[in-house]
Amino acid sequence: MKLGSLTLKNNLILAPLMNITTPIYRRFCRHFSEIGLVSVPMLYTKRLMKNPKSVEQDLFKIEEERPISIQLIGNDINALKSAITYLESYKFDVLDINAGCPSKRAIKANEGGALLKDLENLKNLLSVAVKYCSKPVSLKTRLGFTHSDMNFLNELAKVINTSGISFATIHARLIKYRMNDSKLDLKGLKNLKQIAEIPIVGNGDVIDPYTAKKMSGYTKVDAIMIGRGSIGYPLIFSHVQDYLSNEIEISHQNNIQLMKEHTKIYERYIDEFLKDISLNYSHEEFKFVELKRNAIWLTKNIKDSTYIRRDLSNAKNLKQLKNVLQNINEK
Ligand SMILES: Cc1cc2nc3c(=O)[nH]c(=O)nc-3n(C[C@H](O)[C@H](O)[C@H](O)COP(=O)(O)O)c2cc1C
Asked: What is the 204 CA–ligand 1 centroid distance (Å)?
């Protein structure tokens, strides 16, 4: 599958989710499903300029995770240039510019989602990124700040079409909305897709193969980015891929079977996972806590699963964690 100049194994992308899509999480998801591209959550350009070492941990061994995208947030051209220069020493595949973060901090600092209030500035930032970065550049944004109509979408499409970026990811909501307090605007996404001359990645509320099909069938986006839908459901990418390309329905009948399918896979590879990667976490303990967190997420939406979660969180080491996973599968 081609996304601009990138060739990916499929058109599914793991979204950047701050504090969630960590290196362990990204590798965890890729053990379950083929994922075209994974994303490192946002790095602040100003912080990077002041103290490049501050992001070493975030970027440790990312070359093992290719294809991978790194995201920058900021509105200062000089900070952006110096962040890009610093990043050139890393091996990655896409540089993504964040113009969609709705947090109060980002809006106050005039960055992230606030960039949609000043499309001229957004275009400048994107053009600088394209000029100075040797990798393809993408944009991640939403459909508007406080409102979205065809006029605004035409203006946004102009920026997308003329700044030299390779593709744009659109979360089909406005910046003013938080995550769950508004419906997804698939009509807006479809309209933007129609006037965009580069590939568009659709994003928002994809939680299973059916919501993925609804988005891609209606809007005709070129690829789909999945964030929260992957938490506790890392097989989602496989299931979406099977459904979109071959109409293969998910084989499990209910959440318990899905959890068992997940935990069986997790149990099988957990040793290998720990042996193979020497992630740069300061404490082995922290690595284990993340593995446990991922296991606990697999019990999401399971009726009466408090006892399983309790056993998982009581596990003190890998052996105990594996035992709990094994017990789940034997029941
Ligand atoms: C906890 C959390 C952290 C996020 N961190 C980032 C981020 O670092 N960069 C970014 O562009 N979007 C971030 N997002 C937005 C997601 O990438 C995505 O656009 C949004 O969650 C909608 O997609 P979903 O419904 O598939 O989760 C974050 C969202 C959440 C919930």
From this structure: 9
